[in-house]
Design a protein that fits this description.
Layout lengths: L5 H61 L3 H16 L3 E8 L2 E12 L7 H9 L2 E2 L3 H9 L3 E3 L11 H6 L4 E9 L2 E10 L7 H32 L9 H17 L4 E9 L2 H8 L1 H24 L7 E8 L2 E9 L4 H12 L4 E3 L2 E3 L3 E7 L7 H18 L4 E3 L2 H20 L5 E10 L4 E14 L2 E3 L5 H7 L1 H23 L7 E5 L2 H4 L4 H12 L6 E6 H6 L1 H14 L2 E7 L5 H5 L6 E4 L1 H6 L5 H17 L3 E5 L4 H9 L4 E3 L9 H11 L1
Parallel strand pairs: 12-13, 15-17, 17-18, 18-19, 19-20, 20-21, 21-22
Antiparallel strand pairs: 1-2, 1-6, 2-3, 4-5, 5-6, 7-9, 7-12, 8-9, 10-11, 14-15, 14-22, 15-16
Length: 669
């Protein structure tokens, strides 16, 4: 062995230092590599967790879009959240429908292993929470997600003891929001005690928004369905829902022959007067009040154990028409007692703008008797009975019986025969002269409709016009009358060119007058027939004018622009003639025959006074007057002396056909 020299020791020390430096560098590299690997692993875990959460949100959002209902979506969401994140128990509380500050259990929950959690689950499903109370109540109060660590020590956590018993340590909850309102609260519990995760709570908030859209969609659909079957003014079932309820009752009756079914049809008395005189707002107030009184009467009857009570459905068909379905009763006289109780409930006045408004009603009652009766049949019968009740006087109940059945059958036969009458050419026009009282000369005619239903059998309008009006056939019939009368007038003008042209008065029904484009129909008829517009006078009743005043005035002005004249028929028989007369562009008043007839009775002084007042009013408004129903020379003399312009009645002539009318013109010169 050689002897180490001094410089050799220096070389070894240098080598050691070099190795030490290398080892330190390697250690730093290993540490840096380990740190990088740890960072990479943490990033991958975070990325994986983030991806899991995104997929969870996507799954729940997709389910929310396709869910059949809210419950289905909530069950799916609570199961997925628990399974994806390892939460031991999830539960849903809903807003109490009767108290928005209270949460109630929904029986929607999930636990992968519920056996060891049952004390806590049972406690949760039996609890309600007020706003601010416990975990759900605090979420309801804050509208935001909430995380709780170590719930066994939480101050505001009523389930603390049972949570400790079941080994639960942490919890979080979030709201399900519908716009700006909490609709539900979802809560979750775990055995471990992880640190609060802000990003996780934010994700749960997004899930709450998605689930809220399901609730909002379901509420909207429910509202649409409800609105489709209920009257918007009174909130009662409407015609469609009532028809369905009656149909179902009749189906039960078909299965159980002793199951009784009846329908009440109620129509308010004088409701039109309320609408016309006080306005539609007052009318709506009366309808709302009526609905409430009828409902209360039915509810009190059901609560009165002294009197057996049927199952019932109260509905509003429209306007002032209300119906009641009664079913499942034993005593056949019970529906009439129910009807009388309903009428009694309407006896008190409605208070509107500090005024008392009385509005009673009339009720028609129909029992389901035959096996094949339908809901529509039963409603029609009750409607027919209601009209009978009105005919007997206000505040009456009429039952559909054999007499009314025969009358209804006759009405139906009339309707069926009317439908083909125009096509078969069964209608005829007769003409009654209108005479100038000052000269006793023929001035014109009123066209009067007759129906030759069978050869030689002429039927007056009073026996079929109501049916024609109700069915809408009056529009076609009225248009035919207009054209036929104008053609007859043109023929007379051509035949007698040297005399003053005779005029023609044509009655116009309410439905015909208010049909869209009526003025256009009149214009086309004038153009096509060539009649002089100034010789045409359209007679409308007071009810037409006041049923829709603004529309009536508009149509009348359109007619006046065509050059035709307008008469108010049966003046004085309505309840608001004087109050409304100045609003309308009339040319002529037709004085009702009842006033003319009263001029000759014992109290004729009163009758003459009324006639004189009407004539003075007409003179003030520059209107001519035609007195109807003249039958005696004395009536003609009195009216002439009072300044009445024209007269019409049997004293001069009964209605005649077109040929006889031509002879009257020729004889008059």
């Amino acid at each position: 062995m050689g002897v180490l020299k001094h410089e050799d020791f220096r070389d070894v020390a240098d080598l050691a230092r070099t190795l030490e430096r290398v080892e330190r560098r390697l250690a730093r590299e290993r540490a840096a590599r380990a740190e990088a690997e740890a960072i990479a692993e943490s990033g991958l875990r975070a990325l994986y967790l983030s991806q899991q959460r995104i997929e969870l949100l996507q799954r729940i959002a997709a389910k929310a879009n396709e869910a059949a209902d809210t419950r289905d979506a909530l069950i799916y969401a609570i199961t997925e959240i628990c399974a994806t994140n390892g939460w031991a128990f999830g539960n849903v509380y809903l807003i109490d429908p009767g108290n928005a500050d209270n949460l109630v259990p929904s029986d929607i929950w999930y636990a992968a292993d519920p056996a060891w959690l049952m004390p806590f689950i049972d406690d949760s499903l039996a609890r309600q929470f007020r706003r601010g109370e416990g975990l759900p109540g605090r979420v309801l109060d804050s509208f935001a997600p909430l995380w709780l660590s170590d719930i066994t020590q939480a101050a505001n956590f009523p389930r603390r003891d049972v949570a400790r018993q079941c080994g639960l340590n942490s919890a979080f909850a979030f709201p399900v929001l519908v716009q700006n309102d909490v609709a539900a609260v979802m809560e979750f519990f775990a055995r471990d005690n992880p640190a609060e995760d802000e990003s996780f709570l934010a994700l749960m908030g997004q899930i709450g928004t998605q689930l809220g859209r399901v609730i909002e969609r379901e509420r909207f659909a429910a509202k649409l369905f409800y609105d489709a079957l209920h009257d918007p003014l009174t909130n009662l079932p409407n015609r469609a829902l009532f028809h369905d309820r009656v149909t179902r009752a009749l189906e039960r009756r078909a299965r159980q022959p002793d199951y009784r079914v009846a329908v009440l049809f109620l129509d308010l008395d004088a409701f039109k007067f309320i609408n016309d005189s006080l306005g539609h707002q007052a009318g709506d107030t009366v309808l709302i009040g009526t609905a409430a009184r009828l409902r209360t009467a039915l509810e009190r009857g059901a609560a009165d154990r002294a009197d057996p009570w049927p199952e019932w459905t109260l509905a509003r068909l429209g306007g002032d028409e209300f119906t009641v379905l009664l079913e499942g009763f034993v005593d056949e006289w019970l529906p009439k007692r129910v009807a009388m109780r309903l009428l009694d409930s309407l006896s008190e006045a409605h208070i509107i703008a500090e005024s008392e408004i009385h509005s009673g009603g009339s009720i028609g009652l129909a029992h389901a008797v035959s096996e094949c009766v339908t809901a529509l049949d039963l409603l029609r019968k009750a409607d027919t009975a209601m009209y009978e009740a009105k005919a007997r006087g206000r505040g009456q109940v009429a039952v559909f019986d054999s007499v009314l059945r025969q009358r209804a059958t006759s009405r139906l036969n009339t309707e069926n025969a009317l439908r083909g009458a125009l096509r078969r050419g069964e209608f005829q026009l007769f003409y009654q002269p209108i005479v100038d009282l000052g000269t006793d000369r023929l001035s014109g005619f009123e066209a009067l409709l007759r129906w030759e239903r069978r050869p030689g059998e002429l039927i007056a309008p009073g026996q079929f016009i109501d049916v024609a009006e109700e069915t809408g056939l009056i529009v076609m019939i009225g248009n035919w009358v207009l054209r036929e009368a104008c053609q007859a007038t043109v023929a007379w003008h051509r035949r007698f060119p040297d005399r003053k042209p005779v005029t023609i008065s044509i009655n116009v029904s309410p439905r015909q007058f208010l049909q869209p484009g009526f003025a256009d129909i009149v214009r086309d008829t004038i153009t096509e027939t060539g009649v002089a517009p100034a010789t045409v006078s359209l007679e409308i009743t007071e009810s037409i004018a006041i049923s829709n005043p603004d529309r009536a005035v508009r149509i009348m002005r359109q007619l006046r622009a065509l050059g035709v004249r307008i008469s108010l028929d049966d003046f004085g028989t309505g309840y608001s003639s004087l109050g409304h007369l100045h609003r309308y562009p009339f040319d002529t008043l037709k004085l009702d025959r009842s006033f003319v007839a009263e001029m000759g009775v014992e109290r004729g002084k009163v009758g003459r006074g009324i006639v004189r007042a009407v004539l003075d009013l007409a003179s003030t408004m520059d209107l001519s007057v035609i007195a109807e129903g003249l039958e005696t020379p004395r009536q003609c003399e009195d009216l002439r002396a009072m300044g009445c312009t024209y007269g019409q009645g049997y004293f001069y002539s009964r209605p005649v056909d077109m040929a006889a009318a031509g002879r009257l013109i020729a004889r008059d010169g």
